[in-house]
Amino acid sequence: MGKSILLLGSNGQVGQEIQQLLSPHHKIIPVARPTVDLTQPENLRPIIRDTQPQIIINAAAYTAVDKAETEPELATTINATAPQIIAEESQKLGSFLIHLSTDYVFDGQQSHPYQETDTTNPLNVYGKTKLAGEIAIGQTHPDHIILRTAWVYGSFGKSNFVKTMLRLGKERQEIRVVADQIGSPTWAQDIADVIAQIIPQLKPEIAGTYHYTNSGVISWYDFAVAILEESRQLGFPLTVHNIVPITTAEYPTLARRPAYPVLACRKISQIIGNYPPHWRQRLRLMLKDWLSKSSSL
Question: What is the SS3 string spanning the chain?
């Protein structure tokens, strides 16, 4: 039965999609809190040694972007120290490591999509700790895939932008959304799917860093408008009448956000043989999927 895969962060929104998609074809060993606490990353070593997976997928991360500004040590432990330990143990085992990272390793100052080789310059603690994790993996274990993605949402997980907009859309008449930060919304299920497509091809020749998002580029405001339009057509209960575009300056946050951290996906497209599907199509599918699963909307 396929490969033995240790899946770290199996209870997150991407981790759950990966487990659901890969379980019929591979032996998945799911690991998440409370089984392992990434604030104590040394605890990962015996788990990796005992399970001896052929592949390790690290979908675990500290992702609270603003909170990271006040908890830099904790964010560093989870996003940088833990990946280094995972890479060390993976290298000893001879297993392949697939690690998820973020568009926030870039400052978003250029006006065209970022290639994998472009200079990184994170603006916030979250981005800096994720970049530190990438560097640690690159220096420790050659047989790795670092997969940067962005604006992730899905049916699983406690909170994401889509779920937040639907909650606010039920509670409020008006929603104010930032319109000067640009990116590519990405369905968690598509991230799981691209990993599934990469696994049969894993070999040293394709090791390295890749970008993967859904195609198309929009602002958070445009994304909010689309979410509510699609949701209304599907019969979601909404009371919101007005979505107001605002600037980043009008919505101050602890962490600075990059304005245009759009990722170029040509490199991964050459590996999987197709270009990522458009974000609007995938949003529609996710909402239909979530509506069919949820009775408490």
Answer: CCCEEEEECCCCHHHHHHHHHHCCCCEEEEECCCCCCCCCHHHHHHHHHHHCCCEEEECCCCCCCCHHHCCHHHHHHHHHHHHHHHHHHHHHHCCEEEEEEEHHHCCCCCCCCECCCCCCCCCCHHHHHHHHHHHHHHHHCCCEEEEEECCEECCCCCCCHHHHHHHHHHHCCEEEEECCCEECCEEHHHHHHHHHHHHHHCCHHHCEEEECCCECCEEHHHHHHHHHHHHHHCCCCCCCCEEEEECHHHCCCCCCCCCCCCECCHHHHHHHCCCCCEHHHHHHHHHHHHHHHCCCC
Model pTM?
A: 0.95
pLDDT digits (tens, 9 = 90+) for 9-46: 999 999 999 999 999 999 999 998 777 888 899 999 99
pLDDT digit string, tens, across residues 131-178: 999 999 999 999 999 999 999 999 987 789 999 999 999 999 999 999
d(CA 92, CA 225): 49
Which residues are paired to 177 by β-bridges? 245
275 a catalytic residue = no
Q: Which residue has the tokens 């000893």?
A: 92
- Annotated active-site residue in 62, 104, 114, 126: 126
> Please, what sign has the CA dihedral across residues 85, 91, 95, 98?
positive
In the chain the domains, ranked by start, together with CATH numbers, are 4-154+186-216+261-277 (3.40.50.720)
In this structure, what are the phi and psi dihedrals at residue 138, rounded to the nearest 5 degrees?
Answer: -60, -35
